[in-house]
Amino acid sequence: MTSVAYASAAAIIGDALKILLPPVRRTVPEYAAEHRLLRSKSGGGLERWINDTAPYLIEPSECLTSEDYLTVAVAGPGQCGKTSIGENWFLHSVATDPGDMLWYMQTETGVEAYVKERINTMISTHDVLRENLGKKAVDDSLGFKKFAFMSVSFLSATENNLINKTARRIIADEVDAYPESLGDIMPILDVRRQVYGRHSKIFALSHPDRATGLDPARDWNKGVMAIYADSDRRIWWCACPHCGAYSSFTPIAARVFTLNYPPDGTLDEIELTAHLVCPVNGCVIDDRERMAMQSTGKWVGDGQEIDQDGIISGERVQRRTAGFWIVGLMSPFILGGIGGLARALVKAQRERDVSGDDNSLRTVMVKQFGVPYAPERNVGTVDANELADRAEQALELGKVPAGVRFLTAAVDIQQAHFEFLVRGWGERGESWVIDRGRILAEPSTAPDDWDKLLVDVFQKTYQLADGSGRVMKIRAGGYDSGGAPGVTQQAYAAWNRWRQRGAIRFYGKAGPFEAWSIVPLKGANRPNAPRLTITYPDTARQSNKMASRGTVPIAAFNPNAFKDDLAGQLMRAESGPLCVHFPAALRSKEKPHIWFEQLVAERQGKNGTWEKISPNARNEALDLMVMNDVIARLHGLARINWDAPPPWAAPWDKNSAVSNLSAASLMPKTSIASRLA
Predict the structure, then answer these.
(1) Which strand (E) or helix (H) includes residue 339?
(2) What is the pLDDT of residues 620-677, one digit of tens each?
(3) Which secondary structure element, helix H or strand E, spans residue 35, and what is its range?
(4) Partner of 47 at 20 to 30 A CA spacing, among 141, 188, 243, 305?
C-alpha cells in the first residue's frame, strides 16, 4: 500500500493567518532602503537605494506617511533627488499601503517621456510592482496603471484633467511649469483629495521658477515657493568639517556657506578652484568635504533656532504643510560638483553682460542652484533731484510722523566726527527719515566721545507729531566698527563698557538673529558674502565650541544686497509698503541737494557690486540708510505680523516705546560719565 504524506495542519493554518496579517508598517525611506532598485551609474546592472547618499531626502519622505501633514512641498533644483521622493512613495504605496494616486506633470509630452523612461523601468525592475500590475490591456497604459489594490493616473496639468477626479494621494510635479491660466494650483488640488480628509496627501515639488526673489512677503506669491511660504519652512543645516560650526546652504539662513572662486579667472580656473567658505570661521571647504558633511545635516523649521554647535531650540510652528527647500549646493548629484556650478554661474553672468539677455542666468539660478531668480532691477538710477522733489513739507525733521511704529539709529564713523541717521519704520517696511546730524569727535582715540554718542544718539527720544507731548525712544541702533586705525578697538571697548553699565539690552532672538539694543556693524568685502550674520570676531577662541564665550556681537552684512534693497525702495514714489519718506528739511536751499546726492552716490556695476560714481563722491547718507535697514532686519522687520505686532511695534496708544515724558528730561544735568554710571 502506497504511503501518503500529509501537510502539517499547523503550517497550513500559520500560512493562512500570515495572509490576513496587515503588512509591516515602514516609512517611505525605510522601505526604499530595503527594496528600491536603481540603474547603476555605469549602466551595468542594478543597485540599492541608499538614504545616506542624500540624507536631506529622508525627512520630507517621512512626512508623506505622517498624518500630521496634509501637504508636503519641496522646492529645489534639478538633479537633487526630489522626484525620487515621489517615486519611492509610489513604490511604498503599491507594496504596503495602497491608495489611488493622481500624478500631474506639466505637459502630455512630459508625461509620456517620464512614464516610459522612469515608471515603466521601475515596474520592470521591482517584483512587487510587476506582480501587482493588472494583466488586462486597459490596466497598463502610458496614462494609467491599475495595480491590485490601487491605481495611478499620470496626467498633464490641464483644466480638463483637474476636474471630476479624486484620489487619496496626489503628486504635483514641477508645479511652476503648469499653465499660468490655472492660477493658484493648491485650491484646485485640494478639491481633488477633499473627500479623504486627513488621510489624504499632496506632494508638490518644483524648481522655484515663479518666485521673483528672496523676500517671502513680496516675492513668494506664486508656484512652489508660495506653497513653501505657507508651510513650516524647513531649511538644511550642516556642520563645517573643519571648525564644527553649523551653517546652511540656503540663502535666507542666518549663517550661509558661500561659494567662492576667482571672479576674473577663466572658466577652467573657476571650476578648478571653486570652494565653499564657512561663514563662522572662514574655513575653506572643498567638494569632497561638502559631500561628506551632509551626514551631519539637520532640517530646522520656522520657529526653531540652531546654534553653532548644532543644538536646535524652540518649537517648530505647527502647520498642515511640511515645507523643504533644497538648493544645488546641497546635492551630491550635480554634474561637476561645486566647480561645475560656479562655472555655469559665471558663464551665464558673462553672457548676460555681453548680450543683455538674462535667460541663461535665470535657468542656472533656478534649475541648477534652486534659488529664485531676481531679475536685475534698474537700480541706482534714481536722480537726486527727483528724490528731493519728493521730500514732504508736512514732515518735520526731529519728530515722529503718523505711521511710524519703531525707530532705529545708525552711526557712520569718520576721521574727526560721527555721522548719524534715525529712521522710523511702519507697516510692511514703509519708512521715514526722522533725524540726521554730525557730532564732532575723535573716534579712534577718545572713549569719552563714544560715551557722548551713546547719550546724544542712541538714548535720545523723539516727540510724536500728534501734539500730545508723548515721545518715542529708539528701539535699536548700530554703528560702523571699522575705519581708521584704533576705531575697531574703541568700538568694541565702548560696547563692552555700555553693556557693563546696563546701557545695552539683549532682547532675545528675532527669527534667526540675536537682537541687541545696540550692536556694532561690519560690511563684508566679498560680493557673495552672506546677507546678514551675527558673529563674535573679537573672541580669541581655539575652536567653535567656545563660541558662547564671545563678548561683542558683530552684525556682519553684505552691503551690496542691502543697497539693492534700498534702490528698490527709492524707486517707490507712492506711499505704502517699502516706500521711503523724506522731510523737506533734508533739501539744500538750492541745487545740488547735498544729502540726496550722497544717497545716490553709488551705482551697481555689472558684477552686482556697488561703487562710487566718482572717487570723490560722499556716500554717508547711503551708508546710514543701509545700516538702519540692517538693524531693522535684525529685529525681525520682515517677520512682523502687523495684525498682531509686538508691543514695541504696536500703534502709539499701545506702543511700549512711547511714553508721556522724555527720559532725557528727567535726567539730572550732570556729566556724561555720571549719567553712564
Answers:
(1) helix 337-355
(2) 999 999 999 999 999 999 889 999 999 999 999 999 999 986 444 444 333 333 333 2
(3) helix 28-35
(4) 141
* Confidence grade of residue 4 (pLDDT, cut at 50, 70, 90): low
Selection from 476, 492, 496 nearest residue 413 by Cα: 492
C-alpha cell at 45: 546592472
Give dist(CA 662, CA 415) in Å, integer: 32
In this structure, the strands spanning 151-156 and 101-105 are parallel
Instruction: Say which range, 25-29, 247-251, 322-326, 456-460, has the weakest mean pLDDT.
Output: 25-29
457 contacts 439 by C-beta, under 8 angstroms: yes
| pLDDT tens string 246-268 | 999 999 998 999 999 998 899 99
Mean pLDDT along residues 8-27? 62
Query: Using alpha carbons only, what angle is made at residue 57 by residues 54 and 59, rounded to the nearest 5 degrees?
Result: 135
Q: At what angle do helices 559-570 and 620-634 cross, to 10 degrees?
A: 100
User: Nearest CA to 468 among 198, 658, 630?
Assistant: 658
Query: Which residue in this structure is represented by grid cell 556657506?
Result: 257
Confidence of residue 501 (pLDDT cuts 50, 70, 90): very high
User: What tens digit of pLDDT does each residue of 127-181 get?
Assistant: 999 999 999 999 999 999 999 999 999 999 999 999 889 999 999 999 999 998 9
| pLDDT attached to residue 381 | 58
> Cα separation of 168 and 99, whole Å?
6
Q: Which of 466, 441, 470 is nearest to 456 (CA)?
A: 441
Q: Which three cell numbers stand for residue 237?
A: 543645516
As a whole number of angstroms, the distance between CA 371 and CA 209 comes to 9
In terms of pTM, does the model score above 0.70? no
CA distances from 238 to 96, 306, 334, 444, 511 (A): 33, 10, 18, 39, 19
- Rounded to whole angstroms, the Cα distance separating 11 from 393 reads 95
Please name each of the domains of the chain with its CATH number.
Answer: 59-206 (3.40.50.300), 235-318+327-369 (no CATH), 390-517+563-602+617-676 (no CATH)
* Residue 643, SS3 per DSSP: coil
First to last CA, the chain: 114
Is 269 in contact with 262 (CB distance < 8 Å)?
Answer: yes
All three cell numbers of 479, joined, read 554703528
Nearest partner of 89 among 204, 166, 197, judged by Cα = 204
CA–CA dist 664, 456 (Å, integer): 10
Q: Which residues pair with 515 in a beta bridge?
A: 508
C-alpha cell read off for 571: 524707486
Q: Is 67 helix (H, G, I), strand (E, B) or coil?
A: coil
Coil, strand or helix at 335: coil
Residue 373 phi, psi (nearest 5): -90, 125
Question: Residue 435 CA to chain centroid, in angstroms?
Answer: 32
Q: Are 235 and 507 in contact (CB under 8 A)?
A: no
Query: Cα separation of 29 and 294, whole Å?
Result: 17
